[in-house]
Amino acid sequence: MAERIQRVDLSYYRTNLRHTDSQVKMLRGDQLVWWYGPIRQNTRPRSIPLAKVHFRQLFNDVPGPRTSAIVPLSSLPHYRKGTIWRDGKCISDTDLASPPQTFDVDFDERGWSLTSRADLIRQGNAHIFHHHEYPLQYQHDRTRLLEFKLDDGTKNLLIPCTEYFVRAYARNMEVCRALATLRWSDVMSVFFDDPRRDEYRWLVKPSPKMRYYDAVFLAHLLYDDYAARRIRHINAQFTSQDPSAQIFMEATPWFRGKGQLQCRGRWINGGNTFLCLNLVGSSQPDGGEIEWQTKKFDNSEGKDGGRQVLPRPVRTAEADEFLNEHSYAVPDSHSEITIVKPPPFKIIGSKRPIKKTKEVIKTDRGRLGPHPSEANSHSSGEGSGAGKNIGKLEHAAEAELETQGFLYDIWNAFRSIMADNPNRVTKVNWYTPPNFRDQPPPRAILLRPTIDWDPEDKSAPGWVYLDKKTGECRGLMVLRIEVDGENYFCFEVQPVKPDKAEYSGVLMKSHVGTLEEFDDFVQQLCSRVRYVVGRFKNMESFFPPGAKIFKHHQKDAKVLYRSRLINAFKEIGVTLK
């Protein structure tokens, strides 16, 4: 296999994550992520397990010589197979892996098995995953593969177990890191504030280190014996091995039942085997409601002289923000937590119902301790010591709903309008500074928290956050639609609930002559919209005359919001079909 690959834009927000103390920085030229090798323990420090990543150097975009590098296991989802890295930075995606394909699978034990290329050769089944169709460094590669039966059993799906572990187990890689480094008793205390089962409901009391988006996984670990057995097997593979051992891990489905997986990859074996290179989505296990109960400390009736509270800020890294992650040093024990988002992971089908509750604990009024010092670099390991100025990183994939959310629905509606008006609507692009792009999915411009704003409504400054606990801010989607040679712009506020419109949109004819003028307009809009908490009606004078502020509805049977956007165009004098 030596065909030329095609470079494509990355389809998700990326921070500028670097591992300057790993061999990734030392690799020369453009390096294509090809395969994952074994995992091993890290003796300095043990809390950062390491994984080998195999690359192929590109010459005129043709995969050539093989190279490899060691990176922290927690950051492995950023090294998506098919991405190109240069001087330690991810610069592009490629068409090495196909667009996403969805497969019906059986997560019961009868629906899958474990194998490897070495096993297939030994069994006389080398044709299923032949070396010539996707060459690896070793013909008898020992990487464990999860094999699902497809259709009537004549076709199959192969997923590398390491890929399945870092993508389909928990969205927060802190969970995977704990399973790979701690004894089982310590794992349970890290995951749960109280690891005992409730007799009447699926009540989960997470530790402060756990995040809400892993509620389903943690609930099954606590209440589902099958899930606990599968997850404990992961842990045993690491704790039972010599620290110097190379671990070709086995990761199997942690729940049972029929479901779906969404993969990017390649058809091999004459179209009978799909080799998954990127696992991008999965069904959730069926079941009843999960209660996610966290603690809330109330000192309103307490006395002075309580415990000292050390603030631990949590924020989400911005797109293109430079972050240097250590492979061999741990963060300070009291440091800011920065959440870095690998490629999103899609929830296919219905979402499990989860109810959030609070356990109120009465306390005395304590003293607020010092804020952590500003971090110069970061680490995903377990915090220890002080004075290093190393912050804590959490790698947690954002959930992408099957509908792909309200913003995507608006984008899809405009693309549908373009398809039905091919001679008039000639462009639909999304904008994040400094460029317009047309490759889906569209991205939003992240809004920044307000500074020194003290409104009467004390909740208003918090509007900018989608999740205040993690510091994740909402965004503003900016679209350009070219109709009859004229540019029109649409602005949409990102809702808290991804699949539901919460705010009106704006549609307007362009009033600027240059990209610089437009960028200045967008910057002002991103600033001002925060002070009206997303209500464009309260800043109507900011927009040029003739701009239409419109509400949304979902009456369209096939393409959500399409007819409303057609009507919005009509109200500014443009009739489309």
Could you walk me through the main structural features you see in this protein, from its secondary elements to its overall organization?
By secondary structure, this protein is of the alpha/beta class. It is built from nine helices and 34 strands. The strands form eight sheets. Strands 8, 9, 10, 11, 13, 14, 20 and 25 form an eight-stranded mixed β-sheet that branches. Strand 31 (475-483) and strand 32 (486-493) form a beta hairpin. The radius of gyration is 25 Å and the shape is globular.
Topology:
Layout: E1 7-8, E2 16-18, E3 30-40, E4 50-59, E5 62-72, E6 84-86, E7 89-94, E8 101-106, E9 112-115, H1 117-122, E10 145-150, E11 155-160, H2 161-168, H3 173-181, H4 184-191, E12 202-204, H5 215-223, H6 225-239, E13 258-268, E14 273-283, E15 290-298, E16 304-309, E17 314-316, E18 322-324, E19 337-340, E20 345-348, E21 354-362, E22 365-368, E23 377-379, E24 390-395, E25 399-401, H7 405-420, E26 425-432, E27 435-437, E28 445-446, E29 465-467, E30 472-473, E31 475-483, E32 486-493, E33 505-509, H8 515-531, E34 548-550, H9 562-571
Parallel strand pairs: 2-18, 11-14, 12-15, 14-20, 15-21, 16-22, 17-19, 19-24, 20-25, 23-24
Antiparallel strand pairs: 1-7, 3-4, 3-6, 4-5, 6-7, 8-13, 9-10, 10-11, 13-14, 26-27, 26-31, 28-31, 29-30, 31-32, 32-33, 33-34
Helix pairs in contact: 5-6
